[in-house]
Amino acid sequence: MITELEMGKGESELELGLGLSLGGGTPAKIGGGGAWGERGRLLTAKDFPSVGSKRAADSASHAGASPPRSSQVVGWPPIGSHRMNSLVNNQATKSAREEEDAGKKKVNDDQPKDATKKVNGKVQVGFIKVNMDGVAIGRKVDLNAHSSYENLAQTLEDMFFRTNPGTIGLTGQFTKPLRLLDGSSEFVLTYEDKEGDWMLVGDVPWRMFTTSVKRLRVMKTSEANGLAARHQDPNERQRNQPM
Amino acid sequence: MNYFPDEVIEHVFDFVTSHKDRNAISLVCKSWYKIERYSRQRVFIGNCYATNPERLLRRFPCLKSLTLKGKPHFADFNLVPHEWGGFVQPWIEALARSRVGLEELRLKRMVVTDESLELLSRSFVNFKSLVLVSCEGFTTDGLASIAANCRHLRDLDLQENEIEDHRGQWLSCFPDTCTTLVTLNFACLEGETNLVALERLVARSPNLKSLKLNRAVPLDALARLMACAPQIVDLGVGSYENDPDSESYLKLKAAIKKCTSLRSLSGFLEAAPHCLSAFHPICHNLTSLNLSYAAEIHGSHLIKLIQHCKKLQRLWILDSIGDKGLEVVASTCKELQELRVFPSDLLGGGNTAVTEEGLVAISAGCPKLHSILYFCQQMTNAALVTVAKNCPNFIRFRLCILEPNKPDHVTSQPLDEGFGAIVKACKSLRRLSLSGLLTDQVFLYIGMYANQLEMLSIAFAGDTDKGMLYVLNGCKKMKKLEIRDSPFGDTALLADVSKYETMRSLWMSSCEVTLSGCKRLAEKAPWLNVEIINESDNNRMEQNGHEGRQKVDKLYLYRTVVGTRMDAPPFVWIL
Fold it and tell me: What residues are paired with B273 via a beta bridge?
């Protein structure tokens, strides 16, 4: 079961609630920058064998108190993922609107019952899509589970370019590290912002990035010419691999 | 019948349309088999891996319509990894090569690529109808190929798919000569829509009956669209802005009044509830209302709308309607046949959620009710017994109590008796989903009474293997059994291997079945594909000395006539 595999990993301090056992884990502190700190390592799909990568952001809620809420169990309640995404988006928009109406408030760390993801008073929708050039099927990442660009880049690297024997990343053929952020590799990480423009990841502070990002794309450096000028043709075709 | 020439028999067969009946006909004798297979136009394949395209085409060379289903049902809840399978490409390639006159393709839970859609659009001159439900892997570029190349396109129906949106130009790919559209549903697209192209398309489609818009189509565009298509029968509203100016709103009201054929309403993806009154004039005609994505419609606006809908047969709603709202439904919608109540708040139910009271009210007020999907916070045995008494005609009964293992909230007993009453009273029950605290007893009842049951979904239920055995031994018509987080193991799995030949599939995840149990099963039944889905290191399972006793995370088995599939990803181990 999930619990056994997680304990066996030897990474003890993980509080991230993705698909944790029904008993609930130690309460996590949601707080300002660096909450995941040095000890946090993002749990990815390979840590939770029964978890698909498209999870409702909601299942990452951090209730320390039992009883476990239905939203903490993987694939429960049995709502289609399309509907689940819509639900999560609605809740985020609603909360964000409520926050704006009530005026900006700082989230109090001492309220462990507060299970919505709030950073500096703004609710964010956690999961966004990631596509990579040359890979037909996309993934999703939970931005709320990351604290920095490095974190995010590592996750993406793990997702698309696994180097463990016995598992194959989506691309299969690449085994060298991506180094998405320093411009030295074959790929760059880009994102589409709220205004629909494609931008290079890394220019703005992390928090600002998380509030404005709509989705991510791992793009071939050769195609990223002109990104410095901060314009990208939004209709650029993404080539799909035949199945 | 043997005295009649084949053409006469074939003509008689034309009147037999259900798949079950046609399958039965083909088994009568060789001559009927032959006549039936040449005259068969519509084929349904419930599991795309149960057969292959070559066999399909060999048997039904005159095929015009194909329905294919790919991933198992629990894939909807993220229990099946993306790369598991269900690719439509080989099917389309084979169909294209064979030059069969394909006119309709309906896919559910399959992986569809832009390349597949392009090939589809170019290979079949008379292609008319594409229905994709819960599929993924394609973009709006694929839709553009369909739009551009299918000259006689009648239906483009996209339901709850994951489509990468390259922003809205696909609509302008419909040529000006395309005037044959009857169904256009793109509600699941997330991106921008070219409103001009859309309006022109709708204006030149006099046969358009079903139009479902996505969230990017605002209220004023809606008004214009409805004005061009007063013949519309089925409408999915996109965005229903917060503050429409009065002119747009008046135009909308005028347009809606003209839509006297409107019978089905859905969408309201972003809704301003006070605008709902624009729809009141046509509500008395509505037979279907789907507000399950309309999170902002609740309270008095919702109730007022429903009070106008006296002819409603199908209602999909969020639980924000509350028990009181369901009482209004019960007293207004006497024709109601199907009800679905979805959760609106996963973070920790408010008092607006529904309880057993709402369910009882509906059962008491709606005598024609035969299908229900009900997400709720709590339930009691007494309520279920009452529901069973009120509505013995259920065909589908799916109850989801949000908290796993929750007992009767009044007596703290398991809900065995309640569900038992349902299966005992509802003799036509074909589909059942269980939830709450349940022991082996409920399965005893199911095995005993649920004679027509074809699909059963079990989660966090049962005590011992006996539970599963009751079901396998008792439910003669079982087709799809899906089980998660329940203590059923090898004994139940292996008790009657031949049973699985009568079923489409079995799913078991987070149960007690072991690897050696699965291996034994695979040995005994070579006509089954026994798949182990293991997303952690596969190697670990093999290297471990106690491999036999290792519990299997996810087991999916299904009967097949074509053996092991070749397209399984590395983490799927087919025994």
Answer: none
pLDDT at A203: 83
User: CB B77 to CB A75 under 8 A?
Assistant: yes
According to DSSP, the residues that pair with B514 across neighbouring strands are: B551
User: How far, in Å, CA of B406 to CA of B399, rounded?
Assistant: 12
CA–CA gap between residue B265 and residue A94 (Å, rounded): 24
3 state DSSP class of B268: strand
Q: Which two tokens stand for residue B518?
A: 């699965």
Q: Is residue A187 part of a domain?
A: yes
How far, in Å, CA of B185 to CA of B316, rounded?
18
Residues of chain B with CATH 1.20.1280.50: 1-40
Residue B318, strand partner residues: B342
B439-462 b/e (C-beta count within 10 Å ≥ 16 → b): bbbbbbbbbebbebbbbbbbbbbb
Query: In this structure, is residue A185 part of a structural domain?
Result: yes
Residues of chain B with pLDDT under 70: 1-2, 168, 241-245, 347-352, 536-547
* CB of B172 closer than 8 Å to CB of B141: no
Give one DSSP letter per residue of A15-76, joined into a string: ---TT--TT--SPPPP-STTSSTTT-----GGG-TT--S---GGGG----SSSPPGGGSTT-
Q: Two tokens at B341?
A: 């109540």
List, in order, residues 6 or more apart from B43 with CB less than 8 Å away.
Answer: B19, B56, B60, B63, B65, B66, B67
* Whether the Cβ atoms of residue B276 and residue B301 lie closer than 8 Å to each other: yes
- Tell me whether residues B402 and A77 touch, CB distance under 8 A: yes
May I ask the CATH architecture of the domain B52-238?
Answer: Alpha-Beta Horseshoe (3.80)
CB of A242 within 8 Å of any CB in chain B? yes
Residues of chain A with Cβ-Cβ distance to B87 below 8 Å are: 243
Q: Is B528 helix (H, G, I), strand (E, B) or coil?
A: strand
Give yes or no for B551 touching A (CB within 8 A). Answer: yes
Task: State chain A's mean pLDDT as an integer.
Answer: 59
- Identify which of B458, B528, B516 has the alpha carbon closest to the alpha carbon of residue B487: B458
Domain coverage including residue A206: 127-223
Contacts of B486 in chain A (CB under 8 A): none
The CATH code of the domain that includes A212 is: 3.10.20.90
pLDDT number for residue A72:
65
CB contacts of A50 in chain B (<8 Å) are 79, 509-510, 535, 553-554
Instruction: Output the six-digit token pair for B177.
Output: 């000569």
Given a cut of 70, is residue A54 above it in pLDDT? Answer: no
Task: Write down the pLDDT at residue A123.
Answer: 40
Residue A172 lies in a domain: yes
Residue B108 Cα to chain centre, angstroms? 8
Number of domains in chain A: 1
Q: Whole-model pTM?
A: 0.76
Average pLDDT of the segment spanning A147-152: 81
Question: How much is the ipTM here?
Answer: 0.87
Q: Is residue A55 part of a domain?
A: no
Q: Which of B160, B346, B536 sits opposite A87 (nearest CB)?
A: B346
CATH 3.80.10.10 in chain B: give the residue spans: 52-238
> Furthest-apart CA pair in chain B: how many Å?
75
1.20.1280.50, 3.90.550.10, 3.30.70.2190, 3.30.450.20: CATH of B1-40: 1.20.1280.50
Inform me whether the C-beta atom of residue A216 falls under 8 Å from chain B C-beta atoms.
Answer: no
Going by the DSSP 8-state scheme, the letter that residue B344 receives in this structure is S
Q: Pick from B475, B457, B396, B455: which is nearest to B428 by CA?
A: B396
How does the average pLDDT of chain B come out, rounded? 92
Mutate to test the interface with B, among A18, A70, A137 (most CBs of B within 10 A): A70
**d(C-alpha A217, C-alpha A190), whole Å:** 5
Q: What pLDDT shows up at residue B297?
A: 83
